[in-house]
Amino acid sequence: MTPDPQSITVELAGRSYPVLCGPGALDAAMSKVVALCPNKRLLCISDQTVADHHLHRLADACAGAGLTLRSLIIPPGEAQKSFAQLESLCADLLALEVERGEAIAAFGGGVVGDLTGFASAILKRGTAFIQIPTTLLAQVDSSVGGKTAINMPAGKNLIGAFHQPALVIADSAFLQTLPARQMRAGYAEILKLAVLGDADFFDWLDTHGVDALGGDAALMGQAITRSIAGKADIVACDEREHGVRALLNLGHSFGHALESLAGYEGALVHGEAVAAGMGTAFAYGVHLGLCPKDDYERLANHLTACGLPASLSAAPGGPYTAEAMIQILKNDKKNQSGVLRLVLPRALGDAFVYEEHDLGRLEAFLDVQLGQS
Ligand SMILES: NC(=O)c1ccc[n+]([C@@H]2O[C@H](COP(=O)([O-])OP(=O)(O)OC[C@H]3O[C@@H](n4cnc5c(N)ncnc54)[C@H](O)[C@@H]3O)[C@@H](O)[C@H]2O)c1
Ligand SMILES: [Zn+2]
After folding, report:
1. Residue 333 pLDDT more than 90?
2. Nearest ligand to the C-alpha of residue 143?
3. pLDDT tens across 217-234, in order?
4. 181-211+242-371: which CATH number, 3.40.50.970, 3.40.50.880, 3.40.30.10, 1.20.1090.10?
5. Coil, helix or strand for 42?
């Protein structure tokens, strides 16, 4: 028997919203979508790959609910998170006479979600926003929590806004067409959530993660639900990242540096960068005497078993240099008063924000890491 979709609430004063996840979530959500479409039409933004696979499903669901679906389709890929694409999208949205009171839906992965969310945040000073994530990464991470952004040559996600969706629809049926590499990349963000604060979840993933990735939909469904619930809790506690939410950046300072250097053409995908970044954060934690070596080895072994890079030298998209990584790390959004703030581990399931004053020490460490084969 197919399990029912689940509903998880992101609790935010006056702006709480549901995340419907699992099989059948799209159909179950349509009454909520209708309530966000006063003009009986829904405008969705998608990328060409997602549209080819799944736009007909969204069109059918809308038709069944009495809504007209209008769509804007962009090319796939990280390079679309740019000022040029944002401007073009906003122009198209204005040409379609989208009103402030009607929802704009992001139908795709984290790229479509981040870009659409930012357009929705600034169009007419903010429209309602629906996330319909179609990658594992977007379902468990980027669609929940309201961070929206585009990239700049100086680094990832440097221009953006907090703009919470009114509804998230994470239907697992969309994942059936997702390539294995993208499933692994999304899994890296699930793992991140466990590693930063939930040792029991890490143990569970260490036991079941490889099978979940291997196609066991029931196990993957459990991992997804647990991950969304964990992220929802963190966002509810700290919407604007003044405290615990910063831990969600585990692996991301190093990961974003790799992504910036690899370029945004797909040689390195975000989740792979996060995986290599997490492995590096643990290796640095061991190097500084903050974290037991056994925990680093358990994480690295699990990443490798899942087909993810566990170190800088294993990350695709290089060559990378320590010097170039340090230049990008200096511009990291989390830095305060010029001090680099890294999320580092004390153990599996226990991460904290570490202020690194000694960039020379970090650069020497990165140099050694990059030299390993
Ligand atoms: N806002 C946040 O809180 C947050 C959190 C994590 C990551 N992100 C951002 O998310 C982005 C990465 O997201 P992503 O990994 O989803 O990348 P993506 O959106 O580029 O999607 C990956 C690829 O999968 C394709 N695809 C999407 N759904 C598919 C499906 N169902 N079947 C087949 N192909 C499909 C896309 O066309 C694309 O080629 C990065 O830009 C990252 O910075 C944001
Ligand atoms: Zn991420």
Report:
1. no
2. 1
3. 999 999 999 999 999 999
4. 1.20.1090.10
5. strand
